[in-house]
């Protein structure tokens, strides 16, 4: 029965992660599938580029929230009989399920985003202090280079260092999760990496976008 509970919670985390906020907001409010415009990515950055901040900020908030909620469910609904150490691994499993749901959403033809926002949300639940430090790195890189992809990649690489050396985390599962993030995000950004090397990556425009037609 315990195994069934674990699988159900992981399934719920995947379904939460699958909520395609970028796709739904784009289609329901603007009549546009953002995956057919801009970078083709169903994430907040592409939504901002295509539809503007009024659409992109809610998408980002939903993506972060669903990652946080997916992991928090394990805290709010503890499985009877599981040790604290086992519950940590359940939370790790739910974090991974939520991210996979975002990248491969069952509600949107398994074509989603790159998982940065959802990873951030899950990390807020598991590593709240570490994610603040990593957020500073992200903001500094973005502010100086205007490359969201580079900021995401560098922040992910710094993440396990912060978790291990600054936060002093020694739990093998949590350390392994932080290292997995440092691998996962660069892998999902491999096309961006190639464009960065070639000097073809688009810089993020901080100017407010209000005219949807102008951005398409």
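Sequence proposed for the structure above (216 residues):
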């Amino acid at each position: 029965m315990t195994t069934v509970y674990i699988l159900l919670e992981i399934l719920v985390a995947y379904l939460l992660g699958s909520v395609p906020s970028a796709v739904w907001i784009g289609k329901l409010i603007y009549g546009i599938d953002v995956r057919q415009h801009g970078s083709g990515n169903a994430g907040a950055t592409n939504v901002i580029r295509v539809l503007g901040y009024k659409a992109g900020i809610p998408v980002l908030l939903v993506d972060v929230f669903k990652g946080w909620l997916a992991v928090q469910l394990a805290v709010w609904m503890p499985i009877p009989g599981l040790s604290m150490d086992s519950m940590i691994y359940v939370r790790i499993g739910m974090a991974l399920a939520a991210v996979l749901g975002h990248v491969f959403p069952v509600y949107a033809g398994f074509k989603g985003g790159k998982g940065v926002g959802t990873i951030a949300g899950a990390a807020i639940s598991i590593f709240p202090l570490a994610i603040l430090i990593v957020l500073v790195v992200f903001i500094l890189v973005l502010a100086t280079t205007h490359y969201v992809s580079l900021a995401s990649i560098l922040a992910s690489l710094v993440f396990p260092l912060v978790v291990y050396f600054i936060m002093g985390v020694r739990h093998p599962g949590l350390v392994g999760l932080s290292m997995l993030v440092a691998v996962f995000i660069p892998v999902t950004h491999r096309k961006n990496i190639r464009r960065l090397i070639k000097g073809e990556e688009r810089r993020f425009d901080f100017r407010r976008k209000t005219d949807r037609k102008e951005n398409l």
